[in-house]
Design goal:
The complex is a heterodimer of chains A (289) and B (86). Chain A is mainly α and 289 residues long. Chain A is built from 11 helices and no strands. The chains are: A mainly alpha (289), B mainly alpha (86).
Chain lengths: 289, 86
């Protein structure tokens, strides 16, 4: 209890400080601390899936993108209008005020978890989160994958050849080379874990992206051809749509998996999402293919 | 045994608090960054301790993911923000 209170207040403080630090470098550091503390808080709230996403994506990969943004903003002096900040605050506050009575009056039967656990045996996977993501609400996830892909293509299109940040130090280079195989192994393991425990394709993909970005920070790169990279970017969308359409043509309906084939379909889609997410985030970081 | 875990958890919480203070006080940006890495280590310890208390194996996975990405963030900070461009 005391720990939760401490984590919560530190979380709030770090959010405030990351927004209002005078030094932009310190804002970046407080953003990292914010991601870390919110991950811990999700663990304390017994939401390990969200905690893993928050730690891997929110605290690590997003901070890498934010570091690059800070480095660019120091050169170009980006300013946000006060009125825009104000509206963001007002909308967040209204959402909070709307959500609090709703969450407090929600009855146990109305909660989605009852429904999910009832139908879990029909999904082909044992993890309730993956069942919702890729089976019950597969359509939403498909659209999310599409949004990420489109966003990254926007980033590639807007790239004006920004500065590349590398440090060709032999020590860091060999460290990144040592760490990458472990990251690759662990990211596929996390993706596989998604079928029955805490984990999933997006978490695994972001971990892989972290390893790749580390490699690129030391001036190295994975030597795969540009055309392969480009097709890997589109792989998840292709596999997802392909699997969906295949079942639509054979008469089950779009993204409705027949029970005996559902596990293998979900694992296939998860693997493709893992690979594509890694490449997409890596491309988003580098700004070019 | 349970009391020891609670006590350790509180100590780690205190550790997080003091680390946060160091992140805030600085004095230099490098100190802040190193202190935030210390927070990462403390967070990993809390995750592992949570595993000990709850016996849910997935906390170990989260802790491992945490440990893998924490180092990357530190190095990336140093390379992107502290070093002049080659």
């Amino acid at each position: 209890m005391l720990l939760d209170l401490m984590l919560g207040s530190l979380l709030l403080l770090s959010a405030l400080l990351s927004l209002h630090s005078r030094n932009s470098l310190k804002s970046g550091i407080f953003f990292v601390v914010f991601g870390l503390l919110s991950g811990l808080l999700w663990v304390r709230l017994e939401a390990p899936d969200v905690a893993m996403v928050e730690i891997v994506l929110g605290s690590a990969v997003t901070s890498l993108l934010i570091f690059k943004l800070i480095a660019t903003a120091r050169i170009k002096a980006v300013k946000v209008h006060r009125i825009r900040k104000f509206w963001a605050g007002v909308i967040s506050l209204a959402f909070l005020v709307y959500m609090i009575p709703y969450l407090l009056t929600l009855r146990k039967e109305q909660r989605i978890e009852v429904l999910v656990f009832e139908k879990l045996s029909m999904s082909g996977v044992e993890s309730p989160v993956t069942a919702v993501l890729l089976n019950f609400r597969g359509y939403d996830t498909l659209l999310e994958v599409g949004v990420i892909t489109l966003a990254v293509f926007g980033i590639i299109a807007l790239n004006k050849g920004d500065k590349v940040y590398v440090w060709r130090d032999p020590l860091v280079q060999s460290l990144s080379r040592w760490i990458l195989p472990m990251t690759v192994f662990f990211s596929f393991y996390v993706t596989y874990l998604g079928t029955f425990s805490v984990g999933g394709a997006f978490q695994g993909g972001s971990l892989l992206a972290g390893g790749l970005i580390f490699l690129s920070l030391t001036g190295q790169d994975v030597h795969i051809g540009e055309s392969i990279k480009k097709s890997l970017l589109l792989l998840s969308l292709l596999v997802f749509c392909g699997v969906g359409l295949m079942y639509a043509v054979t008469g089950y309906g779009f993204l409705v998996y027949p029970l005996p084939l559902s596990t293998i379909s979900i694992i296939l889609i998860e693997l493709s999402i893992c690979l594509s997410t890694a490449l997409l985030l890596y491309t988003a970081y580098r700004g070019k293919v | 045994m349970k009391e020891i875990y609670t006590l350790l958890m509180l100590l780690l919480g205190l550790n997080l608090f003091l680390g946060f203070l160091r992140v805030f006080r600085g004095p230099s940006v490098v100190d802040s960054m190193l202190a935030s890495l210390l927070l990462g280590t403390g967070g990993t310890a809390i995750l592992l301790l949570t595993y000990k208390v709850t016996q849910h194996a997935y906390f170990i996975n989260i802790a491992l993911a945490f440990a893998l990405v924490a180092g990357v963030v530190g190095v990336a900070f140093a390379i992107i923000l502290l070093r002049d461009v080659d």
